[in-house]
Amino acid sequence: MNVDTDQQYEETKVSKVEGDASGWTVLRDDGWSLYVPSDACQIAPQPGEVMRCYGRGIGHTVRGIVINGRVYRYRTEAQDRQDHADMVARQKQERRDAYEAKREDFDRRVLALPEMLRLRVKRFRAIGENAWRHDHEPYELFCCEQAVVISEAVLTVEELQAFAGLPWEAQKRRVPKLDEGHSGNTFGASCALARALLERPDLLPKMHGALCPLVGCEAYGCFAAHEARRGIEA
Hints:
The protein is α+β, with helices and mostly antiparallel strands. The chain has 2 domains: 9-78, CATH 2.40.50; 102-233, no CATH class. Helix content is 53%, strand content 16%. It contains 9 helices and 6 strands. The chain has helices at residues 77-101, 103-111, 115-154, 157-164, 168-174, 184-199, 212-215, 217-220, 223-233, and strands spanning 9-20, 23-28, 33-37, 50-54, 64-67, 70-74. A 6-stranded antiparallel beta sheet has the order 3-2-1-4-5-6, with no helix packed on it. Strand 5 and strand 6 (70-74) form a beta hairpin. The longest helix has 40 residues, at 115-154. The chain is elongated and about 65 Å long. The model has no long low-confidence stretch (mean pLDDT 93).
C-alpha cells in the first residue's frame, strides 16, 4: 500500500492557512484544523485546495496529509501501527527505569502511609507485581499521600465535602500542603480516599484504583475485578 492506492482517507477543502516556511496550521472547511509540516514539501497550502487526511478519522492519528496531490506527510497503516508500538515500548521502558532509580524511596513512602493505605498499595503490588509498580504506583502513591494531607487538614466528612466544592485558591488556603500538580482525576481520587480515611478506613484496600477511570479496573488490578477473575478461573 502507498499513498496512490491507500483508500483510508477523508477529503475536505482548505479553508484558511496560517504559518510560514517552517509549517502551517490549516483550517479545513469542516471546522477541524491540524498542523501541516513543511519537511517533505515547502509549498504553502492555499484556501480552496483539496486536502486528504489519511487514517481512521476524527479521534485517531492522522498518518498522512496530501493537499492538491502534494504529499506533506505519509505513513502506511502498518507503519503507523509499528510507530505506535515502538512509542509504547519506549515509554514503558522509561517508566521502568524511572521507577527503579527510586525504588527504595517508593518503599519508604509506602511504609510511611497509614496502615490501611499501606495495605491498599501492598495489595496492588501483590496482584500486578513489578508491572504495576512501574506503570501505576507513582500515580497511586501520589493520591494516597494527598489523601492523608487532605484528611489531616479537614478533619471531618462534612468539612471535606465543603472543601471539595471550593475554588482552587480557597482549597489551597484550606489545605496548604495540597500539591500544585493535581489533575481532575488525581484530585477526585485523593478526596475519595480522604473520605474513606475519615469515615471507613477498612474499605481502603478494596476501593477502586486511582487510575481505574483511565485504564479500567481489570488492567489496574481492582479488588472487585480481581476477585471476579479468580472466581471464573476457579
